[in-house]
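Figure S4 source data
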Amino acid sequence: WTPEQLYAVVSRVEDYHLFVPWCQKSRPAAREAGDYMEAELEVGFQLLVERYTSQIYLTPGRAVRSAVPDSSLFDHLDSTWTMEPGPAPATCWLSFHVDFAFRSQLHGYLADLFFSEVVKQMSNAFEGRCARLYGPSS
């Protein structure tokens, strides 16, 4: 997919509840300028549900950075998606970085146990969304 296509999927936070695992609700809360928005997210599994506001900084067609400064679950949660043109038409280099820490030691321990599986499911969700919208990857 092109950087613009990946950017379109990652930046449409209002669609996350449609395809992102454990995301139960996602809606824009504020859009102050073309390169900044806030979104309210609700994520969880069974009885563990967390609601928080994510601050999202957009570089159209190139990058999406988010920060969660105030959450009862996370001490911090920061992520950056960067999309660069790939070596062939309709391809791109995608970089994803996430830095987080839970407030609870128990949640941190559980995250360590399941981190690789969570990353795999999240990656598959975004790839699947791109495939549904734009067809198979190049």
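Figure S5 source data
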Amino acid sequence: YTCEQRGPNYYNGHVSFDNIGKALIAVFQVISLEEWSSLMYAVQDAYSFWVWPYFVLLIVSGSWFAVNLALVVIATQFKMTKRRELNAIEDTAAGRKVRRPWEELVVGFVWVITCGKYVVERRKTRWVGGFGVDPA
């Protein structure tokens, strides 16, 4: 078979099977069920009517994979949260101080702000005062 140029690709050439990058975008478009039917009809017009099994198989297997991936992420997050809460309960029972995740986030923000203030103060003495001379 030879590929002939008979007109522009669909979607201004962004979605096609001309190279591996654009083909991956097309596969993602089919898996995410966004305008997959118009892409299938375009491929049917260009190649053959019998490309529909490829698209149906891609939709079924791709959607199954995406759902399983989402379930794994949810289950993993649930397991981590359960472990963290059990550790917090054990620490409370043992009399140790329990630090919640939001407290760690606040401590991190305070650290970043403190470092930022230090950097800004250092820059003021260099830039505003000119050649390291303090403007005050």
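The helical segments are 20-31, 36-46, 52-93, 101-128. The CA atoms of residues 43 and 51 lie 7 Å apart.
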